[in-house]
Amino acid sequence: MKARIHITLKQGVLDPQGKAIATALTSMGFAGVVSVRQGKVIDLDLTESDVNRAEETVRSMCERLLANTVIEEYAVEISE
Amino acid sequence: MQAAVIVFPGSNCDRDVAVALEKASGRPPIMVWHQETELPPTDLIVLPGGFSYGDYLRAGAMAAHSPVLREIRAKANGGMPVLGICNGFQILTECGLLPGALLRNSCISFVCRDVWLRVDTTNSVFTCGYAQGEVIRIPIAHHDGNYRAGSDSLEELEAEERIAFRYCDTKGETSDAKNPNGSAHHIAGILNSSRNVLGMMPHPERLADARLGGTDGKPVFSSLVEALA
């Protein structure tokens, strides 16, 4: 199984890097960028073959290490 | 007072803080590698500044799961004073000994300069050598010092007078203009609820000797020596 984890700052948490990217895009002439939120993607290759068990394990990884849930939220995608 | 300084791969203020501790206490601290699973008997544990594990994932995130941290958490919960400076503060929030988190500075850039701090509580072993409301000059050097916490946590920190230091001007007045990183409530350092754990972004060890240009950081170490004698 493969897992892809998207980690982003929670809504309401100021994202200074996203703000800088938005300013840069606008100054480059890309009109219509209302806001930018940036984050990170973590790809895992797992030996687990059961989707539910894989998701449960990856969520536990997110809670304990991969995301800081004080400031970040995460989404998990599991695929074959 | 016998101190232990924890050394992670990427720590770079471990030696500076050891010099400041030895000068204050007369005893060289024990340097403890992060892979240790037991700590020597000490009166104080210090998590120094630097870039433990290269700030991989998030500043302090990897160090918070290193073997020695399990022991530090147990000692801290048992009342042992623990001081985290800069990266040490980030590690303390990541491992849950202090509430909140330290985000990228609101100005995005790394900030390395002296700032003014107001001592907002002298009720701790780390700050009892200062006067209440005293304004001190201490250097900062960080990229991720923008303190964030939920509104409940911030209210609790305020109500329990656990904000040890706030960024301010030379007169002790706080303002967004004098806040170098966008920290909530202008927070530069906080205590845990038992007041035996302090995390602070500024570096008191960098101004603890007149030959380095000032001694405003010295009372952090002399407070500890006096309180833990």
Could you describe the 3D structure shown?
The complex is a heterodimer of chains A (80) and B (229). By secondary structure, chain A is α+β, with helices and mostly antiparallel strands. Chain A has one domain: Mth169, Chain: A (2-Layer Sandwich), CATH 3.30.1280.10. Chain A is 35% helix and 29% strand. Chain A is built from 2 helices and 3 strands. In chain A, strands 2-1-3 form a 3-stranded antiparallel β-sheet, covered by helices on one side. Chain A is elongated and about 45 Å long. The model of chain A has no long low-confidence stretch (mean pLDDT 95). Chain B is α/β, with parallel strands linked by helices and 229 residues long. Chain B has one domain (3-227): Class I glutamine amidotransferase (GATase) domain (Rossmann fold), CATH 3.40.50. Helices cover 22% and strands 24% of the residues of chain B. In chain B, strands 2-1-3-4-11-10-9-6-7 form a 9-stranded mixed β-sheet, with helices on both faces. Chain B has a two-stranded antiparallel sheet with strand order 5-8. In chain B, strand 10 and strand 11 form a beta hairpin. In chain B, helix 1 packs across helix 5 (218-227). The model of chain B has no long low-confidence stretch (mean pLDDT 97). Chain A binds chain B through residues 9, 13-14, 16-17, 20, 65-66, 68, 70-71, and chain B through 57-58, 61, 65, 93-94, 99-101, 103-108, 146, 148-150, 182.
